[in-house]
Write a structure and sequence with these properties.
Blueprint (H helix, E strand, L loop, with lengths): L1 H50 L18 E6 L9 H15 L7 E6 L1 H8 L5 E5 L8 H17 L4 E9 L5 E9 L21 H77 L1
Parallel strand pairs: 1-2, 1-4, 2-3
Antiparallel strand pairs: 4-5
Helix pairs in contact: 1-5, 4-5
């Protein structure tokens, strides 16, 4: 019993330490997410305004094709001990494949994070690209590598559609698995009041789209990876907090049980001593 109590106390100390580490990393990741959101929102609004200009010039990233091969950018974590975080994302990926009626031959996965890579590679899904999810959080270079690979595969015709699957950071306790269409790029729909704008493009519309659309793609990928990093640390902090609380409850229960057993043993010994004394008197 004492050994079990000591083991539970060791677990509690470890989970408390991991909770503190995750909390520190979460604060940094949360600051990065909040700092990046205004830029991503502004890019969203710019593309939304361009969509009101009517028909945009042809661009490879706007080209719509019959979906024969679909790519998924799946952002999971490299490590575990974060509750159901990874399993929720894997389940969202499986649901997306099932709802689209795709078989493994029609799917190409771009995995950021070892957990998603290990799960789907063992089940025969083609992995077009794999990158680890840095412990300190994904950065611009990670997003650029993923965005460049996705853009190249889409433009070459290897992929006909691409979706982002990541966990949107709501707060340290809540993370929402999200499936976001990435390619082809469609100007976001806003409130349609029937107004159409006659833009004068400077430089030309073709040159503007050639600069804007790849940057918009990179922004979408970067924002998703930042949200995923913050969600991972939030999920791990919550999981370690629950594990520490459960270890504390286990320690209390084991201590109470041990005290009851010790009290019963002492009572039994006292009763035996008193019974022996009474027998000697008799």
């Amino acid at each position: 019993m004492r050994a079990r109590i000591r083991a539970a106390k060791s677990i509690q100390q470890i989970t408390r330490a991991m909770k503190l580490v995750s909390a520190a990393r979460l604060r940094r990741a949360q600051d990065r997410v909040l700092a990046a959101r205004p830029y991503a929102q502004r890019m969203h609004e710019v593309l939304q305004q361009l969509g009101r200009a009517g028909d945009l010039p042809d661009h490879p990233l706007l080209q719509k094709r019959e979906p024969r091969t679909v790519g998924f950018v799946l952002a999971t974590s490299d490590r575990g001990l974060c509750g159901s975080y990874n399993m929720n994302l894997i389940r969202a990926q499986q649901n997306a494949i099932r709802e689209m009626g795709l078989n493994p031959e029609q799917v190409q996965l771009i995995c950021v994070g070892r957990r998603g890579y290990q799960f789907f590679s063992k089940r025969g899904y083609p992995i077009a690209l794999y990158r680890s999810m840095p412990t300190s959080g994904a950065g611009l270079e990670d997003a650029r590598a993923v965005a460049d690979a996705v853009q190249q595969m889409f433009v070459s015709g290897a992929l006909d559609r691409v979706y982002l699957i990541y966990s949107q950071f709501i707060n340290p306790v809540t993370q929402r698995p999200t499936v976001l269409p990435l390619l082809p790029i469609e100007p976001p729909a806003g409130e349609d009041d029937g107004t159409r704008y006659d833009f004068v493009f400077e430089p030309s519309a073709e040159e503007l789209l050639a600069r804007l659309l790849p940057r918009y793609l990179l922004t979408q990928v970067l924002q998703a990876l930042l949200e995923a990093s913050a969600s991972e640390h939030g999920a791990r902090m919550t999981a370690m907090s629950m594990a520490s609380d459960n270890a504390g409850k286990m320690i209390q229960e084991l201590t109470l049980t041990m005290n009851r057993l010790r009290q019963a043993a002492i009572t039994k010994e006292i009763a035996e001593v008193v019974g022996g004394a009474e027998a000697l008197k008799g």
